[in-house]
Amino acid sequence: MTDLAQADVSLLEAGAILSIDLAAIGRNWQSLQAVCGEAECGAVVKADAYGLGLEPVVHALIKAGCKTFFVAHVFEGRRVRALSAEAVIYILNGLVPGTAPAYAEVNLRPILGSIAEIQEWVQFCALFGNRGSPNGSPMTAGLQFDTGLNRLGLKPADLPAAKELTERLNLSLLLSHFAWSGRGSEARNEGQSVTFDEMRALWPDVPASLANSSGIFLDKMPLHQIVRPGYALYGGNPTPGRRNPMQAVLRLEARILQVQNVEPGETIGYDGQYTARARQRLATINIGYADGIPYSAKGTDAKQGADTVIDGKRCPFLGRISMDLSVIDVSQVPDIARGSVVELLGPTISIDELAARSETIGYEIMTKLGQRFYRRYTRL
Ligand SMILES: *Cc1c(COP(=O)(O)O)cnc(C)c1O
After folding, report:
1. How many CB atoms lie within 10 A of CB 105?
2. Is the torsion defined by CA of 123, 127, 131, 133 positive or negative?
3. CA nearest 113: which of 65, 20, 176?
4. For residue 221, what pLDDT is reported?
5. Beta-bridge mates of residue 68
6. Best label site of 81, 86, 249, 351, fewest CB within 10 Å?
């Protein structure tokens, strides 16, 4: 396995160590492709592949067999293109005004989500007649339909105009996005699926895509021609409340800086939000909210903190999380020493657990993992 550690933070000096298993990402893609049968499994690698590093992740996905990538921005698409001349690359956020030449230049496909976007793309494509872009690649785009998210996409009233405008375009994908898939609201998902089918009926020959990670695991839901998982590739649970079918990809460990005791009645951290009820043993660890530990992982007199793990024993956060430091309860492992490592994410604490205990979602934790770690790409 490659050990492409971040150059500017050494293992010795780092407050925390983030291990990312690229082979597990590849296996997760392959198992999703197996679940999808006839449909093609793409990969969503926006936001630096959910914080895990776009270049190494795309490299691993290509090796696993992935051919179609989805990102949010043009500049993210350029980074994928630099790794692969053949990859099909869609820009989910559509066409930003004035940026059409960039799509042509490196062969990116915008997912057009409004009449204004379609018009701008049609005008740009007309400059080249039907000859494709300046570098000869065909000018290809997708269309997005809004089926209930009210975020991006064409509305039913836009369809006649969209049909007419797209008559001379090369369309390769019709897309919509679930609003409720993670929560498994069956009636609402079915409603969106039916609306999607009604809206795309005007373009009967163009491939379609509806499912994200959770959408792949919905019962009785058509997967159409291509699916768009992100979170599940990176080990997040696409079936909330049920056993996670994906392999873990991440481990985050922080180092202990100091161990001490507090007496009953003493408070811990800023604003004294946690008060010791008994004699307790504490460890201060070298990681804080500036490193992506959610502030709301804190343990106060009113709320139990999220857990960390040492030697299989759960050690909850005590008091507020600081910018660069946190305090955990090590009363159960009193002999733990300065320099030892604590698991914050890994085999025991999943990203979904830390999220649930911190009033956020695993997606936010993943994409906010900090820049100060010693990062290594390694087998877990
Ligand atoms: C981010 C995104 C996805 C991936 O969603 P996951 O829940 O991470 O699988 C798919 N489609 C669209 C339109 C997205 O914005």
Report:
1. 15
2. negative
3. 176
4. 86
5. 88
6. 86
Which atom from ligand 1 is nearest to the alpha carbon of 236? 8
59 Cβ inside 6 Å of ligand 1: no
Residue type, 256: I
Atom of ligand 1 nearest to the CA of 181: 7
CA distance 227 to 176: 11
* Residue with the two structure tokens 């980074």: 79
Q: How far apart are CA 70 and CA 80, in angstroms?
A: 9
Specify the length of the chain in residues. Answer: 380
pLDDT digits (tens, 9 = 90+) for 287-343: 999 999 999 999 999 999 999 999 999 999 999 999 999 999 999 999 999 999 999
Neighbours of 313 (CB within 10 A): 15
Q: Does residue 265 contact residue 275 with C-beta atoms inside 8 Å?
A: yes
Catalytic residue numbers read: 46, 270
| Atom 13 of ligand 1, nearest CA residue | 177
Who wins on pLDDT, 26 or 187? Answer: 26
Sign of the dihedral defined by the CA atoms of residues 344, 348, 350, 352, in that order = negative
Q: From ligand 1's centre to the CA of 228, what distance in Å?
A: 6
Distance in angstroms (rounded) separating the CA atoms of residues 380 and 361: 23
Check: CB of residue 24 under 8 Å from CB of residue 235: yes
- 236-285 pLDDT tens trace: 999 998 999 999 999 999 999 999 999 999 999 999 999 999 999 999 99
Q: Which atom of ligand 1 is nearest to the CA of 177?
A: 13
| Of 157, 67, 164, 166, nearest in space to 111 by CA | 166
The pair phi, psi for residue 345, each rounded to 5°, is -140, 145
* Domains of the chain, start order: 22-234 (3.20.20.10), 250-379 (2.40.37.10)
Residue 145's nearest CA partner among 122, 165, 166, 174 is: 174
Which region, left, alpha or beta, applies to residue 37 given φ > 0 means left and ψ of -120 to 50 means alpha?
left
What is the DSSP code string of 80-104?
HHHH-SS-EEEETT---TT-HHHHH
